């Protein structure tokens, strides 16, 4: 069977009754072959969410979900008191694993321009984007829909452009982002350093500890997400439940909202859009290094039928080709390591090869003692 053209592709995708793995694979392949992502489906006029994007009901937001009143802390990085600031960061990293930072000194117009440039990329002609369509992790610029399209139980209503910064030559950066991504990456690196210092102090260590131990601030992976408005948001998710394979993730979101954090194993809390704020979360590698003191918490993005949403996730993580070993920091009387020390390479490979990557058990369990 030759899978060609958007019409055939939508016919296949629209077949809600498809049952077999083989049919699902065909539909996934047909979708992937368009290299146009979810935005391509929306532009072609789909009015129903194709079955490859259907998530099981237990993974979807319940209409009568119990509201959790916890608020994600907003931390003022310009606080006068270092002691108070370290205490706030420590409390947030321990309790929720998520916080927002304000007064981080990244200019508002740079934040706005970064969001606009990601939108520009995703809203550019499909021929422009197709040139970047790839899941080859060695490529420093990639555009795709659902990095784990063929491994995940259900696809998500999202497209992403990845940039591994810094790129050796700025001409490699898609034109839509060329003028802004390098400066944005530099600013995130600076904020990342400030956060590493605070987190190191919160662990009772020298402020330079996390940066020196991980040597990962020279490299920022940017994921520029685009969540098209969804005709049937109750059937799918923008991003399914996951934790991040990073030390820290610094996320910039627009005003649409949809990001939620899991607390107490079964309650979802909104991370509201706070103007000018950056959302920070602890990733799995930092949970390991902090020996479980800091929590890498699961989160997801719900779909909505009204607006398309843009977010820019910067993953701070060591280069997988480095020979670094990530080791739990064990301090205090009677403390024991909860994880085995692991090379970045091993960790990266484990995460990459894990299938059915999302929903459920933490990949970190593989590294527990
Ligand atoms: C991620 C992520 C959330 C968002 O990229 O890992 O969780 O709001 N993104 O896009
Ligand atoms: Ni995430």
From TrEMBL:
Keywords: Iron, Metal-binding, Oxidoreductase. It comes from the Eukaryota. It holds the Pfam family DIOX_N. PROSITE patterns: FE2OG_OXY. InterPro entries: DIOX_N, IPNS-like_FE2OG_OXY, IPNS-like_sf, Oxoglu/Fe-dep_dioxygenase_dom. Residues 216-318 form the Fe2OG dioxygenase domain. Its cofactor is Fe cation. Gene3D superfamilies: B-lactam Antibiotic, Isopenicillin N Synthase, Chain. GO terms for molecular function: dioxygenase activity; metal ion binding. Belongs to the iron/ascorbate-dependent oxidoreductase family. PANTHER family: FE2OG DIOXYGENASE DOMAIN-CONTAINING PROTEIN (PTHR10209:SF772), OXIDOREDUCTASE, 2OG-FE II OXYGENASE FAMILY PROTEIN (PTHR10209). This is Fe2OG dioxygenase domain-containing protein. It comes from Aegilops tauschii subsp. strangulata (Goatgrass).
